[in-house]
Task: structure prediction
Amino acid sequence: MEPALILNPNQTLELIKKTKNLIKNVNKSGVILAPFYPIYIPLSNSLFIDKTPAEIKKMLESILINGWTISESSLDLLVQIQLIDKSVITEKITAAAFLQTPENLKIIKDIIEQNSFNMQVRIFRICNLKKENHTVEVWNDIWCKLK
Result:
């Protein structure tokens, strides 16, 4: 179980479209990248552990999805979470998983740079989330709207 943020349906759909477009461009020379669902922001920072969704809601000032990054196994979206005390925490949304190790990371990085974007997140759900294999369980969710 971990606390998480689930975007509103409109922003989730927008991220799915951006991810789909990026995957299509990366996979032109062969399938190496597959979408990863569900799209959610894990709150893995120790500040959020053992906090209820209501307590987490009181801590948040703003949330910004700030472009793509590549790890060894996935394509991720960087998320900057600004807290009320003005400190900033960085989390990641896993958007796609590599099915095999890419041969030319430079080409993928160029595609990512061409598809960079920022998205301010204002309406979302804060919840407890448990992901097990292909199943996701969400409970204690509350809606949040930031200014």
